[in-house]
Design brief:
There is one protein chain. By secondary structure, the protein is mostly beta strands. It has one helix spanning 16-26, and strands at residues 35-39, 42-44, 51-53, 57-61, 79-81, 100-103, 106-114, 119-123, 132-134, 146-148, 150-151, 156-157, 163-170, 175-180. The chain folds into 2 domains: 1-66, no CATH class; 79-180, Immunoglobulin-like. Helices cover 6% and strands 34% of the residues. Strands 5, 8, 9, 11 and 12 form a 5-stranded antiparallel β-sheet that branches. A 5-stranded antiparallel β-sheet has the order 6-7-13-14-10, with no helix packed on it. A hairpin with a 4-residue loop joins strand 13 (163-170) and strand 14 (175-180). The radius of gyration is 20 Å and the shape is elongated.
Amino acid sequence: KKVIALSKDLTLSMTQIAFNDLLLNQLQLASSMAHNIEIRVKSFLINSTGIQYSNVLKFTANPYSLPPKITPPASGTLYITGSAVPSSWVNNPPASQQFTRVSPTYFVLNSVAISGGNSYTFLSNFNSWDYKYSIAVKNDPATVYGGDFQWQGNDILAPPVSGNYKIEVDFQRGKFTLTKL
């Protein structure tokens, strides 16, 4: 389910690329497979109790697979290392710092201890710094809870509060996120 809110506009136009991104990356529907889609409009005025719904528009959509924004690791593995994690800056992180590969472009680490205010990076080959993923600006405070990442970037600043975090790395969209548990 996806909600797109319009507050002042009376229309919404969406390109085929934007709609495909919505289906593939936001709703995470499988590519090259037909999906039944239903769309409807819900409208209301602020300070009004009446809500109006349109008829349901039903159609079949077949999202096409786009190349990922960041090429996923050929090894199929991803680790976190750095001063923000228990093993510090080693190039052979323990198994507890290995991500689960959910799909060819999506990796999740369900719980890892993060030391607030320190730094980290992602490695795809635990014995080589040649295969790392980080951010463009070293320790950018705007990315402590996630943002864009790149191949061979700079260290990522950990959130200010220490604790266990869930980390998601999405190569399809070139984004990573941290959620405090």
